[in-house]
Design a protein that fits this description.
There is one protein chain. The protein is mainly alpha-helical and 268 residues long. The chain has helices spanning 24-46, 69-72, 90-94, 96-103, 106-117, 146-166, 183-199, 203-210, 220-233, 236-261; strands spanning 51-52, 55-56, 169-171, 177-179. Helices cover 51% and strands 4% of the residues. α7 (183-199) packs antiparallel against α10 (236-261).
Length: 268
């Protein structure tokens, strides 16, 4: 049985025979990622208002250098050196790692290639260019370093988990600290949960825990780890967007909402 061959009679950018709203998904990605990039750039360059009580914004964690008396209590290496350029804020020193992990992520690559570069805009929709170079030449060949950013992302996950522990301790008014749970504590804990689902479902981690061996059935521990990563990987797109939204919301809470509340409503 033969099937008719469907071909476009002319070639122009975004030419397609599709009749559905194929442009909605790349448009949503463009708006979502674009808004996050604009806000994150603003916060990185602002370089202040990243601590509210015991809460440290994930945009600034780990806090290598502090910029005022309060932030010095959270910093690893004391005060920001005076010779550091003004554009180099505490966030600029560390955000390249999680940003690199997301930028080289297999899911995000497919998403922003369509939304920002129209490469291609969507399935069976023509590109606004004549050739396709793929990821085998510069600059896209650097996407292959994703597996190395994974190792950094796992370290950041541990650090952010410690920030949740710090967010459990509040001043008791007598110079000490008391255990409590505030809205900010729950916000930062949610950030770790969503980032954990995204990071631990990474395609590279799936290959790391399940690769090399020929039969996973003969490596029961690795098989369980592989199944766990696979379970998260099946919803990798959902984890990617939820974690992106929540890390931004966590920073918004520390920057705007927390100070506006004055104190958390459910601290006990």
């Amino acid at each position: 049985m033969t099937h008719p061959e469907l071909t476009l009679t002319e070639r122009r950018p975004f030419h397609t025979q599709r009749r559905d709203t194929w442009w909605l998904q790349p448009l949503a990605v463009f708006v979502g990622l674009g808004a996050f990039i604009v806000y994150a750039t603003f916060r990185v360059l602002e370089g202040e208002h990243f601590i509210s009580g015991p809460y440290l914004s994930p945009f600034y964690s780990p806090l290598l250098f502090g910029t005022d008396a309060h932030s010095l209590e959270h910093s690893w290496f004391g005060e920001m050196p005076s010779w550091m350029p003004a554009l180099i804020t505490p966030a600029a020193l560390i955000l390249w790692a999680p940003a690199g992990f997301r930028f080289t992520c297999y899911y995000y690559r497919g998403a922003y290639y369509k939304a920002f570069w129209a490469d291609p805009p969507s399935c069976t929709v023509s590109e606004p260019r004549k050739g396709y170079r793929g990821e085998h030449s510069f600059p896209l060949i650097i996407q292959n370093i994703h597996r190395y950013f994974l190792y950094l992302a796992l370290i950041f996950l541990i650090i952010l988990s410690y920030d949740v522990w710090v967010a459990l301790w509040f001043p008791d008014g007598n110079g000490g600290k008391t255990l409590g749970i505030g809205i900010g504590t729950l916000v930062l804990a949610g950030n770790v949960i969503f980032l954990g689902g995204y990071t631990l479902g990474c395609h590279s981690l799936r290959h790391l825990v399940g690769g090399v061996v020929d039969l996973l059935s003969k490596a029961p521990i690795r098989r369980r780890a592989y199944n766990c990563v696979t379970c998260l990987n099946e919803r990798h797109m959902l984890w990617a967007w939820m974690s992106l939204f929540w890390v931004g919301f966590s920073d918004v809470y520390v920057r705007f909402i927390g100070p506006a509340l004055g104190q958390d409503w459910i601290t006990f």
